[in-house]
Predict the structure.
Amino acid sequence: MRPRLVLVLGDQLSEGLSALEAADPARDIVVMAEVMAEARSVPHHPRKIVLVLAAMRKFAERLRALGWRVAYTQLDEDGNSGAITGELLRRAEGFGAAEVLATRPGEWRLTQALAGVPLVVTMLPDDRFLCPATDFADWAAGRKVLRMEHFYRRMRQRTGYLMEGDTPAGGQWNFDHENRKPAKADLLRAPPLRHEPDAVTQAVIDLVQARFADHFGTLTPFWFATDREGALRSLEHFLTHHLRDFGTCQDAMLAGDGFLHHALISPYLNIGLLSPAEVCDRVEAEWRAGRAPLNAAEGFIRQVLGWREYVRGIYDLHGPGYAEQNALGHTRALPALYWGAPTRMACLQAVVSQTREHAYAHHIQRLMVTGNFALLAGVDPGAVHAWYLAVYADAFEWVEAPNTIGMSQFADGGVLGSKPYVSSGAYIARMSDYCRGCAYDVTAKTGEGACPFNLLYWHFLDRHRARFQPNPRMAVIYRNWDRLAPEHRAQVLTQAGGFLARLEAGEAV
Ligand code: FAD
Ligand code: SF4
């Protein structure tokens, strides 16, 4: 019998992958390939490239130890065709294979590319999610609006997480109101678990240093885990040191601590080293054992069981082209400060430099600092999307695009959120300590030193009045704006325009 090829992509590093489950180690050959087309599809952060390539190399070894034959192509290997489809064809010729078993890629771009390969490709569902794609489609069918909260409740009922019979534990579905506290610097807060690179990871670090030095981002000291054991240790570190405070400080930001009580496990979940089910199981077990309060366990499980599954469903449902939407017609180029050019805005400076250093920023930093600013300034959402996809270690289009195009930039016209996530400087001042070290004054609404978020917030609302004023959730904001003296409003708009002109001219604003 001719062998079949079993394709395992860089974000499919799970032993239970559907393509592996459907294959036969005695007959079939696993194909894994490090290719330039993927490594350079956007200028990925060097830490992300190391994470994926090192984890792929180790996963290939793991499969070999389990008895699989693995045809692995390294990035610099002679004959590397540079693309996944090219590697499949090369291997098919080499092994005399005509059939491919594949688990559906997360990204539409690759799904389409595989559909065009002149081989018989059996595409199996990616069942590493808690909500099968067909279930999401059933839930969405016939609904006018697809709100995460409704989806989340259904997922709680379906999976039984944090349920007591038919009712949610604690009598509430959502404890978010307890989860909006600012944080204080705390020397006793445990830092992230750092994983020393082993020989495999070090070889990839050397390769990436040599080949991707032009990409934005600091590579060393590299501290991500690159195998399942390390990812599990990171999960346990979070459960032991951070889960109990996860909820309370979830939205807080500190200049001196970019990690606070976050889990730092999204890269491992997204490449398959951890599964969402095992993560939710462990978090629920901590709560049931009395080691974590309900607001923390619920807040965390909502992110994984709710948000993560929901954004995947939205991406799948919309099909290719989701990331090309631009409902607000924004066209400004991405300001150079996103790539590290100097800025006087302390919040942006802190989040961008943390991103450059660690390929990590937590949700509120992404949403309410870099995302908020890009939306207020009217930056082209395609450019914002390309930036988020490049700079974070956990960025894969199925999860990044709905968060950026939908949640953060409102470029999908409100599929994901009922109103845009925009705020003036007051929100950042309340949830962080950034403003204390800023050249701008967050309390000033106009004038030389006024916080740019204060100016741009009203500029944004004013220029999109026709779209947002009819939204009942925003009507009161417009009433407040209209109550201000006309001269004050004119001053805000003129000064916002002046700020945008300086930004456009490349000044260090
Ligand atoms: P924690 O805060 O500890 O949360 C726990 C887990 O919940 C995360 O590991 C993650 O798997 C899941 N989660 C939380 N929020 C979300 C969400 N909104 N969508 C999906 N999963 C979520 N997340 C990615 O995994 N990849 C991305 O490319 C990505 N891009 C984003 C872009 C923007 C503009 C925004 C606003 C958010 C983005 N997120 C993305 C969601 C979120 O910021 C990250 O999942 C989170 O910061 C990862 O860090 P953590 O593991 O410490 O998360
Ligand atoms: Fe950011 Fe404005 Fe605060 Fe400065 S004053 S840190 S620009 S929110």
Summary: The first strand starts at residue 5 and ends at 7. Residues 345-347, 425, 428-429, 434-435, 438, 440, 442, 451-453 surround iron/sulfur cluster (ligand 2) (CB under 6 Å). The first helix runs from residue 18 to 22.
